[in-house]
Amino acid sequence: MPELPEVETVRRGLAPTMAGATIAGVRLARPDLRFPFPSRFAERLVGARIDALDRRGKYLLAALSTGETLVMHLGMTGRFTIATSTPDRALEASRPGEFHFATPGAPAHDHVAFDLSRDDAAATVVFNDPRRFGFMDLAPTNALDAATHFAGMGPEPLGPDFTAAWLDARLAGRRTPIKAALLDQRVVAGVGNIYACEALFRAGVSPRRLARSTTGARAERLVASVRGVLLDAVAAGGSSLRDFAGADGALGYFQHRFDVYDRTGAPCRRCGGPIARLVQSGRSTFYCGRCQR
DNA sequence: CTCGACTCCTGCTGGC
DNA sequence: TGCCAGCAGGAGTCGA
Q1: Which of A12, A170, A270, A283 is the catalytic position?
Q2: Which of A124, A166, A233, A284 has the most Cβ atoms closer than 10 angstroms to its Cβ?
Q3: Is A283 a catalytic residue?
Q4: A72 φ, ψ to 5°?
Q5: A291, exposed or middle or buried, with CB in 10 Å at 0-12, 13-18, 19+?
Q6: Is A179 part of the annotated catalytic residue set?
């Protein structure tokens, strides 16, 4: 589900529980998600304190006291929930190397459980992911930018490095449609299908326009639009398409403010014309043929 | 190098 | 009502 606003919403929901807590146990229901868990995954986590919970693009990052960072990606359907539990129950199930977390009666697709302790309180953070496009990894904190997931990743769209000049340089000569370029995490981190569509609408830029022609004033508008739509969505707690919810269970409500996404045939909020749908790179694009050039 | 098609996986929806 | 094709918030890989 998650693009930057949803991941940021999840981060904010998990941080009060995870940051400062110690990992008392890790339970896995299977040896892999999209990729295998890294070697000795549980052993490398148990006993570590989580110093901070950060985000980079669509990744959640738990910086650990061990010098490693737990890297988590939610894929399309990844979800975290927080449950409070007693320490006894949390520790009882922690046996490294065994995949016995999927107990009868447990919700389907609960794949990972982190048993956390802080002072006298205990909590369990559970990762659920039906499609298993999500994954987890461990990488050295002092070389995180060089880790495979982040090498070559573009700037944070809400940070100071995402500028029209950067976009100009990054898109120079590229013949791919601007929509596809916005989905390229090397161009800008964290933008996915929804917010690419929404940002292009706000900027008045056609999703079909070649990336290399999105320069100058158009690039300025696009940078401002990407920032604006992401900020608005973060403020709204993200978008809840099916049942995306933050870790606290609260639903985001930005989906009610989509201008184009999933609004095929509905009137454009600017000109009244019908919103159109097309497929680019196998993914749906929604746009207004009159307002976007 | 750059690009688009294909792939992974499960679940829901809409049309017959 | 039931069935099934199509589609879904991501991104790595492959071949042209």
Answers
A1: A283
A2: A233
A3: yes
A4: -130, 130
A5: buried
A6: no
